[in-house]
Amino acid sequence: MNFAKKSLALLSVLTALNITPVAAHADNAIVNAVNDTARSEKNRARDEHRHPAETLEFFGLKPDMTVVEIAPGGGWYSEILAPVLKGKGVFYAAHFPADSEIGYYKRSLTAFKDTMAADERYAETKLTEFAPPTHLNIAPEGSADLVLTFRNVHNWYMNKGDETVLAAFQSFNKALKPGGILGVVEHRLPEDRDDNDQKRSGYMKQSYVVNIAKQAGFELVASSDINANSLDTADHPKGVWTLPPTLALGDEDANKYRKIGESDRMTLKFKKR
Prior knowledge:
The chain is an alpha/beta fold. Helix content is 35%, strand content 20%.
């Protein structure tokens, strides 16, 4: 199944969408978690690029929600989400499967578990498994108010293609309550670029993500430029990994890429139909 080809009608809809402005005042619980000095300095240094308070406010995060974070990796967003939800809500971290044979997956999961065991902020976090298309039970069916995925779509697409991306989005839909919200942040490829660039660059077309979500039973209700970066041309020698924080070229043109900053990203809010 090929969802890469988009209709002119879909692109017209995307163009016509109103862009929601950055939230002026995020929920106090979110702001407190973002400003918490218990967060690592390395993570806090990236706030200027990831805009966590504004992003989570845009997605509608509230402390009494049931929330699923997809593929939290090292837990950059988890260390904000866990304390916001602790005591009032429920937080599911849908991490790599325990039975994975992939070295990076195993190391990442072990490190996350170690953090959960050592950090009181994670005391109520529930760990589930996610690796499409085989591990998709991220939370009890119809239980979640909000599912969040940050910069993951390109990994599923590059590794296994359209069907796996669709399976992932269908699992999000299954976990959500009727009318529940899916928040997606992803590296953005300009719409006039060749679809094949999605296979190797780490960037995805916004129209692709919207179409996949639609196929999985979602409607796009809002988009935001919170995480946009007009300096990012999305045509770098080693794809998105050329930019900070990876700087895949090492010292070569490092200052140039630091000035660009992190990638241009779409920030999309979907509702379960």
